[in-house]
Amino acid sequence: MGAVVKDKKVSDMTAGELQELIKRSVHEALDSDYGLELRPEIEEELRESMQQEKRGEGIPLKEAKKKLGL
Fold first, then answer.
1. Is-contact 4 13, C-beta < 8 A?
2. Strands, E, within 1-70: which ranges?
3. What angle do CA 31, 33, 37 make, to 5 degrees?
Protein backbone atom coordinates (compact mmCIF):
# COMPACT_ATOMS: atom_id res chain seq x y z
CA MET A 1 0.00 0.00 0.00
CA GLY A 2 1.18 3.54 -0.66
CA ALA A 3 1.71 6.14 2.01
CA VAL A 4 -1.38 7.20 3.91
CA VAL A 5 -1.97 10.94 3.62
CA LYS A 6 -1.31 12.64 6.97
CA ASP A 7 -4.51 14.68 6.99
CA LYS A 8 -6.78 11.89 5.75
CA LYS A 9 -9.68 11.15 8.09
CA VAL A 10 -10.02 7.63 9.41
CA SER A 11 -13.58 7.62 8.11
CA ASP A 12 -12.19 8.22 4.59
CA MET A 13 -9.70 5.33 4.75
CA THR A 14 -10.27 1.92 3.28
CA ALA A 15 -10.08 -1.03 5.65
CA GLY A 16 -6.68 -1.90 4.14
CA GLU A 17 -5.32 1.61 4.67
CA LEU A 18 -6.47 1.62 8.29
CA GLN A 19 -4.97 -1.81 8.88
CA GLU A 20 -1.64 -0.67 7.37
CA LEU A 21 -1.69 2.48 9.52
CA ILE A 22 -2.24 0.41 12.66
CA LYS A 23 0.53 -2.05 11.71
CA ARG A 24 2.97 0.77 11.03
CA SER A 25 2.07 2.49 14.30
CA VAL A 26 2.61 -0.71 16.30
CA HIS A 27 5.95 -1.36 14.59
CA GLU A 28 7.10 2.22 15.26
CA ALA A 29 6.09 1.94 18.91
CA LEU A 30 7.94 -1.35 19.41
CA ASP A 31 11.01 -0.68 17.27
CA SER A 32 12.52 2.80 17.13
CA ASP A 33 14.54 1.75 14.05
CA TYR A 34 11.44 0.65 12.11
CA GLY A 35 11.45 2.05 8.61
CA LEU A 36 15.12 2.98 8.61
CA GLU A 37 17.38 1.57 5.93
CA LEU A 38 20.89 0.22 6.32
CA ARG A 39 23.63 1.90 4.37
CA PRO A 40 25.02 -0.45 1.70
CA GLU A 41 28.43 -0.67 3.40
CA ILE A 42 26.84 -1.73 6.71
CA GLU A 43 24.73 -4.30 4.89
CA GLU A 44 27.90 -5.72 3.31
CA GLU A 45 29.69 -5.82 6.68
CA LEU A 46 26.79 -7.78 8.17
CA ARG A 47 26.85 -10.26 5.28
CA GLU A 48 30.60 -10.73 5.70
CA SER A 49 30.17 -11.21 9.45
CA MET A 50 27.59 -13.95 8.84
CA GLN A 51 29.91 -15.64 6.33
CA GLN A 52 32.77 -15.52 8.87
CA GLU A 53 30.52 -17.19 11.42
CA LYS A 54 29.63 -19.95 8.94
CA ARG A 55 33.36 -20.51 8.30
CA GLY A 56 34.00 -20.77 12.03
CA GLU A 57 35.97 -17.54 12.13
CA GLY A 58 35.68 -14.81 14.72
CA ILE A 59 35.37 -15.06 18.47
CA PRO A 60 32.42 -16.06 20.64
CA LEU A 61 30.27 -13.26 22.06
CA LYS A 62 31.21 -14.21 25.62
CA GLU A 63 34.90 -13.79 24.79
CA ALA A 64 34.31 -10.48 22.97
CA LYS A 65 32.40 -9.12 25.97
CA LYS A 66 35.21 -10.16 28.28
CA LYS A 67 37.82 -8.44 26.09
CA LEU A 68 35.71 -5.28 26.02
CA GLY A 69 35.05 -5.37 29.76
CA LEU A 70 31.31 -5.73 29.39
1. yes
2. none
3. 140
